[in-house]
Specification:
This is Cytochrome P450. By secondary structure, the protein is mainly alpha-helical. Helix content is about 60%, strand content about 5%. About 10% of the residues are buried.
Length: about 290
C-alpha cells in the first residue's frame, strides 16, 4: 500500500512538473514528454518533411513557441517581423549564447569560437576575425577578384563537362564555394589532388549534420558523460566525426607552423597564419592571460 502511495506521488509530480511547472515562464508549445521532451514528435515525422512540424507549431502556438530537446527548452522565433524586433532592434538583449558545457568540452575541448562564445572572449575573437578578413580583401575588390577567379575556373570546368552526357552542376558549385572559403582559412584552393580532400570533408560534414539531427544524439547531448554508456553507437559515431575534423585542422596548423615565418613583416595570407602570428607575438611579450 505504501509503495502505491509513493508511486502515485511520484507520478503526479512528474505530470505536474512537465505539464505546468517547468513551462510556466516560457512561451506556449507542445507538451513535453518526461525526460525526452519533444524528441518523439520530431522522430515520428516522415524523412524530408521535418520542417512541416515547425510550421504546424507556428500555426497552433503563434510566431514564438517553445519545444523541448530532452530537458532543454528551445524557444523558436518563427516570424520575420518578430525576428527584426528581437534580433535587429534589440541586439544587445540577445547576444548571449546557449551552450552545453559537457558537449562543448567533449567535441572541442571547451566553449570556444565566435559562434558559441560571448562576453570579452567573443568580442576579441570577433574583432580579430573581422580585421583579418578585411586584410584578406573582404569588403574590397580583392575578394571580388578571388571570387571571380574561382567562378572563371568553374565555368571552364563546366564547359569541359558539357561535352559529356552528364554534368554534375551542384558538385562544381560546391568546389567553387569550398575553394573560396578554404583559401581564406588555410591559403589554398581545391584542385588536382586536393579535390580528394574536399570530397572527404564534404562527406564528413554531411555525415556529421545527419548525426546532429538524430534523436539519439539529441538525447546524448543532455549529459554526454553519463549517457555515452547507453547510446554507445551514437557516441562512437560522434567521436569519430570529431577526430576526423580535428585531425584535418591539426594537420593544417602543423603545416603552417613548418612553412610560415612568424616574425615576417609581410601580411598574413590566410586566417590560420594570422592567428599563429598573434599567438607568437603574445608569447614574445610574455602575455599569458590571452584569448588566443
Amino acid at each position: 500500500m505504501v509503495f502505491w502511495h509513493i508511486f502515485l506521488v511520484i507520478f503526479l509530480w512528474i505530470i505536474f512538473y512537465n505539464f505546468y511547472w517547468k513551462r510556466r515562464n516560457l512561451p506556449p508549445g507542445p507538451i513535453p514528454w518526461p525526460f525526452v521532451g519533444s524528441i518523439p514528435l520530431l522522430f515520428w515525422e516522415k524523412p524530408g518533411t521535418g520542417a512541416e512540424i515547425f510550421l504546424r507549431w507556428r500555426k497552433k502556438y503563434g510566431p514564438i513557441y517553445c519545444y523541448w530537446i530532452g530537458e532543454i527548452p528551445i524557444v523558436t522565433v518563427n516570424d520575420y517581423d518578430a525576428m527584426i524586433e528581437s534580433f535587429v532592434k534589440n541586439p544587445d538583449v540577445f547576444t548571449g549564447k546557449f551552450t552545453i558545457p559537457k558537449m562543448d568540452k567533449f567535441f572541442r575541448g571547451g566553449t570556444y569560437g565566435i559562434v558559441f562564445t560571448e562576453g570579452e572572449l567573443w568580442k576579441e575573437q570577433r574583432r580579430f576575425a573581422l580585421q583579418v578578413f578585411r586584410n584578406l580583401g573582404m569588403g574590397r575588390n580583392v575578394i571580388e577578384e578571388k571570387i571571380l577567379d574561382e567562378v572563371s575556373g568553374m565555368i571552364e570546368c563546366l564547359t569541359t563537362d558539357s561535352q559529356y552526357d552528364v554534368c554534375d552542376l551542384p558538385w562544381r558549385f560546391e568546389v567553387c564555394v569550398g575553394s573560396i572559403i578554404n583559401s581564406l582559412l588555410f591559403g589554398y584552393r581545391f584542385e588536382g589532388e586536393k579535390l580528394k580532400e574536399f570530397k572527404f570533408l564534404k562527406k564528413l560534414l554531411s555525415r556529421h549534420m545527419r548525426s546532429i539531427a538524430d534523436p539519439y544524439t539529441m538525447m546524448l547531448v543532455q549529459d554526454v558523460d553519463l549517457l555515452k554508456h547507453i547510446f554507445q553507437k551514437t557516441y562512437k559515431k560522434y567521436e569519430e566525426n570529431r577526430n576526423h575534423f580535428f585531425g584535418f585542422f591539426n594537420q593544417q596548423i602543423e603545416e603552417h607552423e613548418k612553412e610560415i615565418i612568424l616574425d615576417s613583416i609581410d601580411e598574413p595570407t590566410d586566417y590560420v597564419e594570422a592567428f599563429l602570428r598573434i599567438m607568437h607575438e603574445n608569447e614574445k611579450k610574455g602575455i599569458k592571460e590571452t584569448n588566443y
